Amino acid sequence: MAIGGVGAGGGAGGAEAQGRSVLVTGGAGFIGTHTVLQLLEKGYAVTVVDNFHNSVPEALDRVRHIVGPALSARLQFIFGDLTIKDDLEKVFAAKRYDAVIHFAGLKAVAESVAHPEMYNRNNIVGTVNLYDVMKKHGCNKLVFSSSATVYGQPEKVPCFEDSPLKALNPYGRTKLYLEEMLRDYQHANPEWRTILLRYFNPIGAHESGDIGEDPKGVPNNLLPYIQQVAVGRRPELNVYGHDYRTRDGTAVRDYIHVVDLADGHIAALEKLFATPDIGCVAYNLGTGRGTTVLEMVSAFEKAYGKKIPVKMCPRRPGDSEQVYASTAKAEEELGWRAKYGIEEMCRDQWNWAKKNPYGYCGNAENKD
Ligand SMILES: NC(=O)c1ccc[n+]([C@@H]2O[C@H](COP(=O)([O-])OP(=O)(O)OC[C@H]3O[C@@H](n4cnc5c(N)ncnc54)[C@H](O)[C@@H]3O)[C@@H](O)[C@H]2O)c1
Ligand SMILES: O=c1ccn([C@@H]2O[C@H](COP(=O)(O)OP(=O)(O)O[C@H]3O[C@H](CO)[C@H](O)[C@H](O)[C@H]3O)[C@@H](O)[C@H]2O)c(=O)[nH]1
């Protein structure tokens, strides 16, 4: 484990907006970088712990560049792996944290089917370690990255927080189990304050186009795939399923701008600080609007200015027909709602793609 990077040591000097310090696990990843940026802009002191399993140091350097030197001085990076308890002990020995936002986890469904043990070890053991070390050091406020995957193949949409839950694959099972585990832990320790955020489909990028999603290998998700077709890395998009009972036969999802998602984390954090008896609560973070695959392709084409070649293919095993959120609970209780529509999501996704056709590494090396 090493401690380093610009601003190592925190150096938060003086009156951060809330004078508060937040640990962000997995803060070098897609959603993490956007959230870290907004936390810094809000005046929080931020420590990131990440093992770069699915990210690169450059991503945090870009965050520092966007926020500038003054706010960067409040960003500390610690290289560490949550599955190694000693790494976490060192993170907590270095500083006192008022709260933790826990993004670190593996998230690829197909990989989880091939390597379920890897998903259990990383996602479950990592979270158990985090909880233990937080408890030992008296830090009891936690925002956890859950997923709409916990709704399985919903029989009814929109998905409400109290809709039936079901895991369809090992990745989903880790999220469902961790939600239940964190609920049990909170019940046994009523002073804990825990928010479970169920993200729908995060896409887009920061308006600067300097940070965004940079998947390793062949993208599983729709927008990263479309983006790679647009920059010439893939010949065409396979559209999985065109016989669903939807407007155009393709599947419906609730795409949410990653900047809105990051805002949702700030709202959740503020809710934790303001609500001593919150317990353990789940919130959907989505827009409440469903978009088909083909509608998403045409929204992207509008931003891109050219056609995306598509090939109609059979359904992808395990996919749901329609998934979108009820956003009422987050609106009422967190005072948060998504601001951006799919046009802005595609505009910002394309801006990131054209500035970074090969992601953070800048060239085709090590990319397939
Ligand atoms: N992106 C999505 O579509 C989506 C949807 C729902 C839920 N989520 C959840 O949100 C969280 C963040 O997702 P993301 O899209 O930013 O993923 P990401 O892979 O870009 O970021 C995750 C980060 O965690 C780090 N990490 C993983 N395991 C670690 C470990 N053991 N120790 C330290 N660092 C570790 C990775 O290196 C990476 O930087 C994940 O928990 C994911 O399951 C993501
Ligand atoms: O190349 C592709 C990729 C995707 N799709 C389709 O696009 C839709 C969205 O697919 P994504 O893979 O982008 O998103 P999913 O909703 O299937 O799943 C993602 O979002 C979920 C949350 O709702 C979970 O977090 C899950 O783990 C995560 O991969 C699906 O109908 C899918 O079949 C294609 O047609 N072609």
TrEMBL record:
It catalyses: UDP-alpha-D-glucose = UDP-alpha-D-galactose. One of its GO terms (cellular component) is cytosol. SUPFAM superfamilies: NAD(P)-binding Rossmann-fold domains. InterPro entries: NAD(P)-bd_dom (IPR016040), NAD(P)-bd_dom_sf (IPR036291), UDP_G4E (IPR005886). Its EC number is 5.1.3.-. Coiled coil: none annotated. Its cofactor is NAD(+). Pathway: Carbohydrate metabolism; galactose metabolism. Residues 23-348 form the NAD(P)-binding domain. The keyword DNA repair does not apply. Transmembrane segments: none annotated. Keywords: Carbohydrate metabolism, Galactose metabolism, Isomerase, NAD. This is UDP-glucose 4-epimerase. It comes from Triticum aestivum. The gene is LOC123122254.
